[in-house]
Design goal:
The chain has about 180 residues and is of the alpha/beta class. Helix content is about 35%, strand content about 30%. Helix 2 packs parallel to helix 3. It is flat.
């Protein structure tokens, strides 16, 4: 019976350490420290030629900013304390793996996308962040072709990777904007 209580106490202590240890990395955003309350997000400018990412990325960046609870997104520029400008550029795909049987056959690609971010303070009339480049990349793996007639479907892998790339960029931008102060 006494051993049972020792084991039970040991389990409670271990769980407490795990829970409170995980909370040590959690940071509460102090809304009073923010120099702004409202933000206007300009339409995302897609100069990257990445397929179908503009609408997806716009939704993701809005979601990341709203999840923080620190700012309110407004639809009217006149009501905004700040403006966020995002330009997507430099979408690239390049081989990162080749077949062991046929070196000319690609088995993996790496896709990358760059976001140029500017953050303008409407109250002070100046840029808080000006033309800051953020990058995200994602590996895309393919199975080897079974025959010469079977085409390698790179588009499907690319379309699966793009939401991950844009989500990582949205997370980086939200952290840049919200943790800068």
């Amino acid at each position: 019976m006494r051993i049972f209580f020792k084991i039970q106490h040991l389990i409670y202590i271990t769980l407490s350490l795990l829970v409170f240890g995980g909370c040590s990395h959690y940071s509460v955003i102090n809304k009073d420290a923010f120099p702004f309350e409202t933000i206007y997000i300009d339409p995302v400018n897609n100069n990257s030629y990445a397929p179908n990412v503009q609408a997806l990325f716009d939704t993701q960046i809005r979601q990341k900013l709203l999840e923080s609870g620190a700012v309110r997104i407004v639809q009217n520029l006149d009501q905004a304390d700040c403006q966020l400008f995002i330009r997507l550029e430099n979408y690239q795909r390049y081989p990162s793996g080749r077949s062991s049987q046929d070196p000319g056959q690609i088995t993996a690609l790496n896709a990358s996308l760059t976001a140029i971010v500017s953050f303008y303070d409407n109250q002070q009339g100046r840029y808080l962040i000006d033309e800051y480049a953020l990058n995200s990349n994602e590996p895309i793996f393919f199975t080897e072709r079974r025959s010469e007639q079977a085409p390698l479907d790179t588009k499907e892998g690319e379309y699966r990777a793009l939401p991950k790339i844009t989500n990582a960029l949205a997370e980086q931008i939200a952290q840049l904007v919200l943790n800068h102060w």
